[in-house]
Structure formats: C-alpha cells, structure tokens
What does this fold into?
Amino acid sequence: MKPVLYYSIVNNPMVFIDAIIAQFDHLDDEIKSMKTICVYCGSADKMGDEYLLAARQMGAAIALHGYVLTYGAGCTGMMGAIADGALQSGGEVIGVIPRMFATPTLMHNGLSQLEIVANMHIRKQRLVDISDAFIALPGGYGTFEELFEVLTWAQIGLHRKPVGILNIHHYYDALLLAIDHARSEGFMYAEHQSLFVCADKPDALLEKLDRYQYPQGMEKWLTREE
It folds into this structure.
C-alpha cells in the first residue's frame, strides 16, 4: 500500500482525513500468514560476542521455524551474524543493499538472493514490501530509525504487520521506558503501545509475532475520539 501523500492537508483537510480513515478500513486486505521476517540490527564491529551470538541464534530460529529472513545484506557485526545463523540452519536469506554499500568489505556474498538498489530510501521501502513482520535487535541510529519508521507506518495505517523487539541483555530497557514516558506525558495513545511485542529470547519473540493482533481504535489519533 502506498502512503497517502497526494492530498493537501491545508486545501482539502477533510479529503485527507477521509483517505486516511479509508486506509484503516481496508487494512484487512493485507493480513496474511507470516512467511518473511525482516530484521534490523547493528553492523558495527565493536559490540560484545554475546550480541553476535544472540544474532546468530535469532537467525537460526527464523530458519528453523520455516521463515525467510530479509535484511540489509551486510556482512559485518550483527547483520552478518544473523544471516550466517539463518544460512547455517538451512534457511533462505534475502538481502537488499544500496549501491553505496555494495562493497566486498560491507556486503554479504553468500546470500540466497541479493538485490542492489539505488539508495537507502529504496532499500527500506523494498524491505517493507517483501516482509510480513519486523524484528529489531540491538543497534544504533540506523536500527532505531528503521524500527520507529515501521512503527509509525503501522500507527498511521500504512500497514498492520507485526513488529517485535528482541530485548537481549536488557539492551532496549531504556528505550521501552522512553516509550512509556511518551505515553504518560500524553504524546501517544494507549493503542500505540500495542503496535509491537517484546521478548528476550528468539523463540518467544517469534511466538508473539505469530499471535499478534493489530490493535483496535488506531484511527483515534486522527478523529481525536476517546
């Protein structure tokens, strides 16, 4: 589904609002069984071995549960570890990488399928398009941005796919507290906190993703109905 960016909020506010509400009404068309899972995670080289192990375990769990892993096609840090974990467990891995990063130093050369695209924006859109669910492992700016973008898209009705956070070694404790704080201060609706699930073990997270139900009342942010 394409974002509704074609309406002028200033000149045609009611047309814009009606279009957004219509997206929520038709999101049921997108619901399907979970087959491909996109993972966002760090590509840095300095994290501890426990994070690399967790990434390999997550990749292996995705493969052993019969899912296809999609990710950013990197070979360094947790990105390389999760791909290797899935591949070594007999899984299929699809990587999408922008041309600027398609180098022997950064790009994984052993994937089941590799797509090289023009830029980061196309990469992110492509991963959303081909994935049925999303998982964030520990990472930095890029991982945070990708996680919150896919959550925001769910919030405004562009998709209702499940989103999960693997909170290994309490990495995301502070972020989860920040989200709670945003809600308590009135910057989010209660429903927004139900747009993701969280677990500290790969198998537990996959089970939660499989049971995920898109929260009711997500149009409240637009209508301002309580």
User: Anything to note?
Assistant: Residues 49-64 form the longest helix (16 residues).
